[in-house]
Every structure is written in C-alpha cells, then in structure tokens.
Design a protein that fits this description.
Elements lengths: L1 H14 L3 H7 L4 H8 L7 H10 L5 H6 L19 H4 L4 H5 L3 E6 L5 E6 L2
Antiparallel strand pairs: 1-2
Length: 119
C-alpha cells in the first residue's frame, strides 16, 4: 500500500498540489488526506474515485498497480497493440458445455448472474 501512496504523492507533485490543496480540490477532509499522504491511513475508495474525477487523464491502473504503463494518458507514446481474433473469440456454448446451456444476465451496476440449464 505504501507504493500506492508514493505514486499518489508523485502524481500530486507533478500536478503541483500540496496535501492541503489536494484535499480542497477533491472536496475531502484535510486531515484525512494528510494522514493518507503521511502513510498513517490507507487511501479510501472514495479518495481514489475523487482523484479520478479530478484528473480525467490519470491512468488509475498505473496509479494503483504500478504497471509499466505511464501514469498519465497524455504521456502515452506507444500505439496500442492490435487484438487478435483468437483473443476475442467466444467459444461455442454447446461445445463447451455439452448439452447444457448457459445464460448470463448483465446488470447496469457491472455485476452479472449466470444460469446453467442442464438437459
């Protein structure tokens, strides 16, 4: 978790934001942000959501995981790799499940339910 905090500190420094400025811009309690930036508290989900709303160019995946991708979208210099047809191919349900059938219901909140019908 310290790595995430360090990446947040780097992001704030690049943006020229002190912890107090960050708290004000994110509309959060100043002491909460100060405690998080000092390492006393872990960043809350609300803090991460507020950062993403504040800076639309921020790559949250890089911020949270430290992946090799740049933290800021504006710094991207590589062209995206192409997607192979085999990567997106959907297997035949009958081939995968035999005589069974599966129905997946996607919900608006990003969750899903899966139903399996056996014959």
């Amino acid at each position: 978790m310290d790595d995430v905090i360090n990446r947040i500190k780097i992001w704030a420094n690049v943006k020229g934001l002190s912890p107090a400025d960050l708290a004000k811009n994110l509309q959060m309690n100043r002491s909460s942000v100060l405690h998080m930036m000092s390492g006393r508290n872990k960043p809350s989900l609300q803090f991460i959501v507020n950062i993403s709303r504040y800076d639309k160019d921020l790559d949250l995946r890089s911020l949270l995981t430290g992946s090799s991708q740049p933290i800021f979208l504006e710094d991207l210099t590589q062209t995206p790799t192409s997607i192979k047809a085999s990567d997106t191919a959907i297997p035949d349900v009958k081939e995968t499940l035999g005589a069974s059938a599966r129905m997946i219901v996607l919900k608006k909140d990003g969750t899903y339910e899966s139903y399996l019908k056996e014959e």
